[in-house]
## 1
Amino acid sequence: MINISRKRTQTRTFYLLFGIVLAVSLPLAFFAGWMADLSQIRPVLTQLGHAQPKVAAPPVSGSKEPPTGIPQLRATWGNSQVLLTWTRVAGAKTYTVYRSMGNLGYSHAQVIGQLSQSTSQIAFADFSLTPGRHYTYWVAAGNRAGLGPISQALSGRTFFSSSVIAHNAEKAAVWVQAQSWSQGGMGLLVPADHIQSALAFNIDHVLYTPLYLPPSISHSNWLTKRWIRWKNGNTRLGVLQSFHHLTLLQGLNSPKRPSLPLGHLNTDNVAVWRQRGHWQYKKFQRTIPTLPADAIVLNGYGQACAMTNASGPVIFLHPLSLSDQTSNR
């Protein structure tokens, strides 16, 4: 005899278990498929994520390397300033200026300025100098990538002040006398003399004086004997040469009497002369002004460049030559 109620119970249990298995397996299968798809999409998303910043980042402006050019320095000196100039360096945005005292090397240099100029000629003025001092400069061109090579050192000296130059000229000045003698009667009469005095400047260990005596004063003949003696106090001086109404005498070897070096005119010059017992001086640029007789002209370094003779014209002293170097005004 078959029990129908028990068979129905087994059938319901089977369908219940089948439904539970199906309800659990379907979500698990869907989740596994979703994870598999995500593993394939993730590398693509990662690549897009890395690529997006590269596309969105703006391009970097400026040079990738520092300038390779080296500034070629030139200098115009004054008594308390210097003007540095150089040609623009390709690729440079800025220029750094270094300075050291005296002839000290680059390791002792300090940065004194940084400028940005785009003109073909770059200029930098240093107004913080002391008269009569030595300085050394360097310049380096730079940009965002850094500084380029350092320039060659440029050394120089500022000019002395006008008062110092005038004082040195005073110390180099001495009085000289020209004593001319004339003895007539075939040398039998009492000789007569005539003394003239003038200032002389000790220049390059030679005394330059505007006192000029023409050759006729010392020219003797059969009837009259004539001669000239040059002296500084009791010291006899020999004549080296005469030109353009200037007389060059043997110099004095005395440490108390400094010797002025020879030189050329520059941008700062000083004229010095003695008038009515007092020393006078006048500063000027390149063009020599009208000067009194017996004046000396010195450049900014205190080097003797010219003198005026007793007639007034300016006589240039360097290079020393008998050629015509007068400036008749």
Note: The helical segments are 4-56, 162-171.
## 2
Amino acid sequence: MTLLTGHPAPARDRLAIPRLRSSRHGRSAWCSRAIRVSAALLISALAAQRAGAAPTPAQFPTAHVKVKVNLVTVVTSVLDAAGRPVADLPRQAFRIDQDGRPQKIAVFERETNLPLDLVLMVDTSLSAFGELKFEREAAEHFLRQVLRPGDRAAVFTFAYHVDELSPFTGNLRRLDAALARMRSGTGTSLFDAVFLGSRALAARPPGHRRVLLLVTDAGETTSRTTYDAARDAAVRSGAMLYTILIRAVRSENGRNTAGEHALDTIIDSTGGATLPVYSPGQFGPTFSRINEELRTEYLLGYYPDPEPAPGSYHQIRVRLALSGAENAAKYRLEYRKEYFVLEASP
């Protein structure tokens, strides 16, 4: 069997990896704890060796046993014609295909309670509204809405560089403090942000929902990462991508749309949505809409037939089988349409 976690395979040799800057306030506490624990184990083992006694099993880290499974999970949002989440559909209403072949649904949950890992990535190069306070206030409210026990969020900003302001945590005070440290910058490294946010999510524990939420005007100018590398990282992470797209100009003739179209193309594979805002007052309702979607998702799971080969990409199609007044054409589905099979471990 093959592990289908969506975690990234080793980076390509020639890929220009953007650098992630960690704020001193956002350094992970577990790093220092891990160093202290490792040092204590080493000292204990040396002491035992000098005393002529064999080290006990407790003096060395326990080996982890890797269990391989091939369940593919697909988190799916169903929206009606007005864009409102639909939360009362039965298992029998869903169909899943992989590479054009029907699959048997083995797992089905309404309003899934799987833990959520969220990366909030804020573009601080924005000049559309002059200030970041509207984004900060709306983001603070959103995190209070969306995070439940067991959920974790990390806060990043990006302009020329991508900066980690807070590692993953469920502590709202720490997240608020991170948002308060946002500062405006120059340049817009949009593809770097997608790449590094996806890599951060890919490193999270399996079995969690993963969401990358961008707040940006999508004006890509300074990335080291290519579009293809950013898209590949997003697909491999198994994360859904949501973009709150700030549009100071409504007409496409008055703005650079290349970044917008690039994000839409990535979302077509990862699932998620692009939600435009035209004024500061729209941040709050837009964050609330994302929260509502995340809390009314369906979890679908299947064991792929035939079993996929390691290191391969596969296409997923979810559809509704409804008739009459519940015609499936009335609904829009958001889900990841592609996944990557992790290479088998040696």
Note: The first helix runs from residue 29 to 50.
## 3
Amino acid sequence: MSISDWLRLNRCRDVIQIFIFAEISMAAGSKAVLYALAANAGIALTKTFAAVFTGSTSMTAEAIHSFADCGNQILLLVGMRAARRPASALHPLGYGKVSYFWSFLVALLLFTVGGLFSVYEGSHKLLRPEPLQHPWVAIGVLAAGAILESFSLYGALSEIRSTLRKRSLYRWFRETRQSELMVVVGEDIAALLGLVIALVFVALALFTRNPIFDAVGSIVIGILLIAIATMMAVEIKSLIIGESADEDFRERLVAFVAKKYPQVEILNLITQHYGKDIVLAVKARFRRWPKTSLALVEAINAVELSIRGEFPEVRVIFFEPDISSEQKSRHKAGKR
């Protein structure tokens, strides 16, 4: 087999591994988004009926929030589909980061359509309070919505359970590189807390016969949505700028190379996430250098192939053979 044939065979295998990993990861992410979309569609219609029937401001805020969530989940699905496009001459590292753009857009919509509008609606009713009509209908719908939203949140948490690795949910939120799952979990938590808040304030309005509590509930829900949307936007902004793979991945990669190729010492390792894909830049030295340039190329290709086999999320590898800083210093001193 010629060198060119061998290299082509390696590239074919790499493409197959990347394709399989992308399909599995995308399917898992899409599943969580579809769970949330189905739950929010049903909840939004129920809340709308209850808002019209009862005249509750808190219920209106919740209905708007649910419809906004439905639109957000559709945008996430669009972004996940766009991220699957193959690399091109214009985008040689692929379209993985496009999912970050759509996730950021979702955070903006949650901030404006969900948060600011709820605050505006509550402020408006606070100045012109109106009595609730059929408040028990609102309470029943909110309680049912909380149950349905709990199932949606459970589905999203089930998708991320394997990636938690004994971390708290907050720490996972801060460290995850999967923006679509971050958004789904954040929205589900906001929706569930919003339902509980609406339920409490509608109940207060009912038992005190003071409609101001209903208006205050809408404002509190809006502030909650603004806070969670801001947290998501900050995290996604960092992903758009470019974040490295987490420390666990780096440690596993270095340990794998050291165990399988003891003659290779990694001098420097740079990683960056492109959506679910990871781009690697490796600078390494050989403790025992191959005797010919062809042997060096084959050794580097073997290391790259093994890395892709063990870590299918790695899409692109830049491997630079080098010498250590001490060897460079000795070489410079020898020239003097």
Note: Confidence is low (pLDDT under 50) at residues 1-27.
